[in-house]
Write a structure and sequence with these properties.
alpha+beta; Hsp33 domain; CBS domain Like; 2 domains; six-stranded antiparallel β-sheet; six-stranded mixed β-sheet; 14 strands; about 35% helix
Length: about 280
């Protein structure tokens, strides 16, 4: 049963396209060891779903990074997705937070930044929009209206076990094809629930939601959590700092600790490890 995927589809007679993402195992791996409160996990899940929906529409090599920076208890949300749909993400937040607050209260005022990196050309494109809306879903719909200039319909769901995102985009000739088509599929899409997506084949799920519509379903793309433990890369960073600076940190703290918040990895080097690090260079 395929549950970590993004599925692209097109309504043949309506000039409306869509993408559906559902993550279970890869999402649980992203949360593993984080200890996020449920509302923080839900917010990061929404951001991750959005990021995969964007990444699935990119061609060629590269990555899409989405950052939400706010003045509220959640200071930073980061979600990263490569062109081959390898994902990672994290949330930075204040430990003491009020309960029963909505997403906008968690985020406060701030901005959404979406960065598209083209690995082949080396070019980087970034869009910045203010946080307009009460939910991350509404904030992102505002971003889509500005960046793609297409009317969009979005649904996001997440809990610590699974996440789901459904995006519909109204193409320019949609009203010519069927004046009622956009309203009809939006109404049907609004019936989707998170529990429906767990352990469901995407084609079966889509045909159940849109039983009367003719759809073209494209190749299914697998999504994978990818944030490997890379001690060699960290050692290269320490060598770049230089022996004097690293040994000064060692003398002050008794060990050198490097923490990768994005991947939730911690690298520790004692005096012997530092001596070996610089002895071979």
């Amino acid at each position: 049963m395929q549950t970590d995927y993004v599925q692209r589809f097109l309504f043949e007679d309506l000039d409306i396209r869509g993408r559906l993402v559902c993550l279970t195992g890869s999402w649980r791996r992203m949360l593993d060891g984080r200890g996020y409160p449920e509302d923080i996990a839900t917010l990061l899940g929404h951001a991750t779903a959005l990021n995969v929906l964007l990444g699935a529409n990119q061609k060629g090599a590269g990555r899409v990074t989405m950052q939400v920076q706010g003045s509220g208890p959640v200071k930073l949300l980061v979600s990263d997705c490569t062109a081959d749909l390898k994902i990672r993400g994290m949330a930075s937040y204040e430990e003491a937070m009020k309960s029963n607050v909505n997403e906008r209260q968690l985020l406060g005022d701030g901005r959404l930044a979406v960065t598209l990196e083209d690995a082949k050309s080396g070019q980087i494109y970034q869009s910045l929009v203010p946080l307009e809306g009460e939910t991350l879903q509404q904030i992102f719909e505002h971003y889509l209206s500005q960046s793609e200039q297409l009317e969009a319909f979005l649904r996001l769901y997440a809990d610590p076990g699974a996440l789901c995102g459904l995006l519909l985009e109204k193409l320019p000739r949609a009203d010519e094809r069927d004046p009622d088509g956009w309203n009809r599929v939006k109404h049907l899409a609004s019936t989707l629930t998170l529990d429906e997506t767990r352990d469901a084949q995407p084609y079966d799920l889509l045909t159940r939601i849109f039983p009367e519509e003719l759809m073209r379903v494209f190749r299914l793309h697998a999504v994978e959590y990818h944030c490997p433990y890379d001690e060699q890369k960290v050692k290269a960073v320490l060598r770049g700092l230089g022996r004097d600076e690293v040994e000064a940190i060692l003398a002050e703290q008794g060990e050198v600790v490097i923490r990768n918040e994005m991947c939730n990895h911690e690298y520790r080097f004692d005096a012997r490890a530092i001596a070996e690090l610089f002895a071979v260079h």
